[in-house]
Amino acid sequence: MLDVRRLRLLRELSYRGTIAAVAQAFSYTPSAVSQQLSLLEREAGIALLERTGRRVTLTPAGRRLVGHAEAVLERLERAAGELTGFRTGPTGPLRVGAYPTAVRALLPPALAALSADHPGLEPMISEVDPAEVAHALRAGQLDVALLHEYDFVPCPPDSGLGTTPLLTEPMYLASLTAREPDGEHPCLGPWREDPWITSTPQTLCHTMTVRACQAAGFTPVVRHRVDEFATVLLLVAAGQGVAMVPHLGIADAPSDVVLTRLPIERRTVIAYRRGAAGHPAVEAAVAALRTAVPPELRSGRRPVE
């Protein structure tokens, strides 16, 4: 019989690529992970990993077993949700991860709704970089999380996650002056000569800004790199450059900052482990998060299991 805990480690290795990263995710030592994977190979009766020096890759049999592991883990999530449903209601810890603007704009009203409707739940909020959300969900560090993607930077699919659309928000160009459309590239062309304020490199927002500008025929000259949109808007107000800001980030925009709506969007989904959509705690979190979204931003598409 194949051990489910070892299957989980193999599945995570297929995503993370190194034993050290898997060990960090599950708070194990690398040697303990290696030992567990060796035991899994014995249970399977076939090589699942190819070791070349310090590098480890999955064999064809290992990759096939990961597919079965995904199905097994999904069924276990469904089973856990059904068993929880026999109780009087969702109770206990609920670990929620979100990006900073969502923590500020959506989580306070969502938590108030959860407390009113499900007093037995104990939500625990963590700010999480969207790039780390999938890993944290699969490793069991989070139960529910908010993921976003931008035009020009789509979110790659993850077979271990299910999602429910939450909101779609427009992007704005924040500047000190309104400008007339500029010929072939009316969207961002008028600001091609300005200094830009972007998020830090490797973030989705930074990548989106650079790609959007390149699509408009220029590469932005970046003066400042700041992740918090409230600070970005203060820098714009101080004449330090222009920036792209999502709808949830403009609540406290200084009065002298001009916001020009762009034909670019940011989309947010609620993510959870595949198979957990019917878990009472996840259902409660989804419902509470939806109540926190302004009606004009709500997404109406169906969940993706």
Q: How does the SSE layout of this entry go?
A:
Blueprint: H1 4-16, H2 19-26, H3 30-44, E1 49-52, E2 55-58, H4 60-85, E3 92-98, H5 100-105, H6 107-117, E4 121-127, H7 130-138, E5 144-150, E6 161-175, E7 195-198, H8 204-215, E8 221-225, H9 229-237, E9 243-246, E10 258-273, H10 280-291
Parallel strand pairs: 3-4, 3-5, 7-8
Antiparallel strand pairs: 1-2, 5-10, 6-9, 6-10
Structure, described:
The protein is an alpha/beta fold. Helices cover 40% and strands 24% of the residues. The protein contains 10 helices and 10 strands. The strands form 3 sheets. A 6-stranded mixed sheet has the order 4-3-5-10-6-9, sandwiched between helices. It has a two-stranded antiparallel sheet with strand order 1-2. Strands 7-8 form a two-stranded parallel sheet. It is globular. The mean pLDDT is 89.
Task: Tell me about the largest β-sheet.
Answer: 6 strands, mixed
Uncertain regions: pLDDT < 50 for 5+ in a row?
none
What is the ordering of alpha helices and beta strands? HHHEEHEHHEHEEEHEHEEH
- Order of the strands making up the biggest sheet: 4-3-5-10-6-9
**Quaternary state, please?**
single chain
Portion of residues in beta strands equals 15-25%
Distance between the termini: 27 Å
Mean pLDDT: 89
Secondary-structure-based class equals alpha/beta
Count of distinct strands: 10
The percent of residues in helical segments reads 25-40%
Q: Give the overall shape.
A: globular
Gyration radius, in Å: 22 Å
Total of DSSP H or I helical runs spanning 4+ residues: 10
